Amino acid sequence: MVRIDDSVITAQTLESRLAGERQVEICPRAKLTPSAHDFLRDQSIEVIRRATDGQPPVAAPQRSAANIPAPAARRDSSRRDFTGIFCPNVVIFDDKNKINYSEMERYINWLIDAGIHGLYPNGSTGEFTRLSWEERQDVVRLICDINQGRVPVLAGASEANVRDVLKMADYYTGLGGVDAISLIPPYYYPLSEESLYEFYAEIARESPLDILLYNIPQFTQELTLDLMERLLPFERIFGTKDSSRDQPRLLNTIHRMRQQRPDYVVLVGCEEILFPSILMGASGGTIATSGIVPEVIVDIYDQAIAGNIERGRELQYRILDLINLMLLGVNFPEGFKTGIAARGFDVGPARASTNPGEQEYLIQLESQINCVLADMGYDVRGPRACPVTNLPPIVGR
Fold first, then answer.
1. 343-358 pLDDT, tens per residue?
2. Which residues are CB-neighbours of 67 under 8 A, at least 6 positions away?
3. What single DSSP character describes residue 128?
4. Among the four 18, 65, 248, 254, which has the fewest Cβ within 10 Å?
5. End-to-end alpha carbon distance in the chain
6. Domains of the chain
C-alpha cells in the first residue's frame, strides 16, 4: 500500500506515485479532486483513510451524488490578498503562431517589476476562447513558472461544463502557483437561473481552488445580484469581477454582498470607471490597460486609496484616449497588443483573421497610440501622427 500525505490529491499525483499498487492510504482530511476520484474508480484502487485517535483505518466511500461535500470551510486565513490591479495579460505568439515563451517571460517580468499586484492569465484579453485546452494549460503553467509566487495568480478556468471546469482546476492545483480561478457563466447555451445556480454550487462544493465569479453580460448571460447573493454561503466563492461597464450595478454588488460578507472581493473590469470605483469601495480591478501602462494604472489605484482626488481624476481622464484607441475599431484584443508593441515587445501575429483594411488600420493605430504614450511622458521611438496637446507628462520615465 502507498501512503500519500498531500492535503490535495489529484489524478496526476496518484498516477505518478502508485506505480501499480491497488491501495492508497491518505490522511483523514485530504481532498480528493474529481479527476482523482475518476482515476481511482477507473483503476479499481481502494482508498484507506488513515486511522485517528486509536480508531482502525476505514475505506473511503465512493463519490456519489449522496456524498457531495458541503460548501467549503472558511479559508480566509490562507487566502492571498486580492486587492489592487490584476493584469489580464495577453498571449504573445511567435511567427509560427505558437506561444512565444521567451517574449512572454520578458513581458511578465516587466509587468511585475512595474508594480502590478496580480496576474490574470486566460481572461478575455488573453484570448482564452482562441486557445486550445492544452494551450490554456500551457499559458498558466508558464505564468506560474515565471511568477514564482511573487504576486497572486487568478487564472481563468471557464469551460463549457462543470466537469471540464473541475479538470482545469485540478490541473491548476497541481501547478502549485495558482491562487484562485475566475469563472464566467457557461456561454452559447443560455441557462435558467436555477441551472446557473447549480452550475456554480457544484463547482464551489468540488473545486480545490477559490472562485471569483466573472460577470460579463456582453458575451454571456448576466450573473444577477440575486444569484450571487444565493451563492454567498459557499466560502470557496470569495468575490466577483464585474465587466458590465455599469457603475450602478458595481455599487449594488458591493453594497449587497458585503452586508453579509464584509470581506467579499469586488474587482472592476472597466478602466473608464477605475478611479471612482475604488473610491466607492471596489477592491481593485482587472484592467487590460495595465498591460500597456502598468505604472499609470497602479498609480490610479494608489491615488484612490490615498484619497488624492485631484491627482486621481487627472490620471483617470488621461487614460481615456488610450483605452478608446485600443478598444474600438479593431478586433479585440489587437488594439491592446498594438499598445504592448509600442512599449517594446514583439507580440507576434494575430490569432483572429484580419483583412487588409484592418491591417492598415492597425498601422495607423500604432502611430496614434505612440502619440498618446509620448504625451504621457514615455520614450516612444515609433511613428507618430497626432496634434501636440501641450499637456504635462504624467510619468517620469
1. 999 999 888 877 888 8
2. 61
3. G
4. 65
5. 61
6. 2-57 (no CATH), 84-308 (3.20.20.70)
